[in-house]
Amino acid sequence: MQANSPILLFDSGIGGLTVLSELRKLLPDAPVIYAADQAGLPYGEKSEAEIAARVSGLLGRMAERWQPRLICIACNTASTIALGMVRDVLEIPIVGTVPAIKPAAGMTKSGVIGLLGTKATIRQAYVDNLQQEFAGGMKLLRHGAHGLVDLAEAKMRGEDVSIDAVAEETKGLLLQPHGDEIDTVVLACTHFPLLEEELGKAIGRDVNFVHGAAGIARRVAFLTDGQVFERSGPDRAVTTGDPGDFKQLSRAFAAHGIEQLEGF
Ligand code: DGL
Predict the structure, then answer these.
(1) CA of residue 178 to ligand 1 center, whole Å
(2) What pLDDT, on a 0 to 100 scale, did the predictor assign at position 234?
(3) 72 is catalytic
(4) What is the pLDDT of residues 123-158, one digit of tens each?
(5) May I ask the CATH class of domain 101-211?
(6) Which atom of ligand 1 sits closest to the CA of residue 44?
(7) How much distance in Å is there from the Cα of 51 to the middle of ligand 1?
């Protein structure tokens, strides 16, 4: 294992920054390549087959090019659909991101948990299984809030995001039967914690927000424990989309220690 072998952090867009923030706290010296599949964004509107093919194909090519020591799929949609398949084809450790239902079940007092994810994530059997295993006997109200993905991307480009627009996206959760009893909301898309402040205002009452970023970072640190890290150059982010548009995110990436943005 080379000391400059990177950790590859993958998402459809900038949602993975929520995981990168936590990872930097635990592994400040780790070389990171951030890969955003913006040509495929949003994943939440795609079919399972399309997502599985895209994610495993891209990660295969990226692993070959950069020989990462570990891949972190910092995307709930990709993980709940394609994690098993990617693990089957790549011989490096793969850490996924799955909805934080377990910690939410430990926090709720009302027994009613809200789950905001993409449309593709909320329909996965993976989520049914987590619910059965950790939140049996509780209510888990799910809502596919795909518009929040675009709003989070816009915020990271420095655009204003209105609370009304965020509220419009959460309505479908709060207006479900028992929606008024929700005291804990799982942010089951890595883009959504980027809007936590706006979500708090949009919901307008005290709820706990739970997401998996810190737990994922701990898992990455555990799996790379004892390994030597050395950066041979600045960290970079790559996009499958338009490299010109990608530059609009320069400031958000710079805030996470990534100065070099390029096309894949
Ligand atoms: N960030 C991704 C997730 O965690 C999804 C965004 C998208 O729809 O592409 O689910």
Answers:
(1) 26
(2) 87
(3) no
(4) 999 999 999 999 999 999 999 998 999 999 999 999
(5) alpha beta
(6) 8
(7) 11
